[in-house]
C-alpha cells in the first residue's frame, strides 16, 4: 500500500490547470476588444474627414455662388431715361450663361425686334441692345456689372413696352465655376436649381444676332 503511494505520479495543484486557459481567454478577449476599438476609431476618423471635406467643398462653392436676377427700370429723366431690361448677378461668383429663352404671349421669339412689332407696331424703335447669350456675368460686388439687355429711349415707346410686361417671359439658365446650374426667370426672385442647361429642342434667344 505504501509502495503504491510512492510509485503514483505526483499530483499537481488543482488551481493551476484552470488558471492558464482563463488567462489565455482573457488575453484574447482584450485583444479582440482592442481591435474593435481601433476599427471604430478608424471609421469615426474617416467619417470626420469626409464631413470636413464636404464642409470645405460647400464653403468653396458658396464663395463663388452666382445669383442672376432679371428685371427692369423705367425712368422719365436723367441718363437712365427710358425703359431698361436688365440682367444682374447679385451673387458672389461669376455666372456663365448657357441658355436664354424668350416668349411673347406664350410663343418663343428669337430677338428683340420680333417682340417690338406686336407691342409697338410697325414703326422704328429707338433702342440699344446688349447680348446676353453666352456671356459670363461677374458678381456685382463693389462695382456695377448689370447687363442692359435692351434700352428703349423714346419715352412713349418705353411706357407702351412697360404696359405690356405681362405678355412676355424670359428664362436664363446659368452655371457656376463648379458647373452647378440654375434657371432665373423674369421678375421672379427665386432661381430654380437644375442638373444642367438644356438647349436642344428650344428656341434660343439672341443666339444668332
List keywords for this structure.
single chain; 209 residues; alpha+beta; six-stranded antiparallel beta sheet; four-stranded antiparallel beta sheet; 4 helices; 34% helix; rod-shaped
Task: Describe it.
- The chain has 209 residues and is of the alpha+beta class.
- It has helices at 2-7, 16-62, 112-120, 155-163, and strands at 68-75, 82-89, 95-104, 107-109, 127-129, 136-137, 147-152, 168-175, 181-185, 192-194.
- The strands form two sheets. Strands 3, 4, 6, 8, 9 and 10 form a six-stranded antiparallel beta sheet that branches. Strands 1-2-7-5 form a four-stranded antiparallel beta sheet.
- A hairpin with a 5-residue loop joins β8 and β9.
- The termini are far apart.
Tally of individual helices: 4
**Helical percent range?**
25-40%
Shape assignment:
rod-shaped
Strand content of the residues, in percent?
A: 25-35%
**Total DSSP E strands:** 10
Briefly summarize what is shown.
The chain has 209 residues and is of the alpha+beta class. Helices cover 34% and strands 27% of the residues. The protein contains four helices and ten strands; from the N terminus they run ααββββαβββαβββ.
Any chance you could write out the topology, listing elements then pairs?
Layout: H1 2-7, H2 16-62, E1 68-75, E2 82-89, E3 95-104, E4 107-109, H3 112-120, E5 127-129, E6 136-137, E7 147-152, H4 155-163, E8 168-175, E9 181-185, E10 192-194
Antiparallel strand pairs: 1-2, 2-7, 3-4, 3-6, 3-8, 5-7, 8-9, 9-10
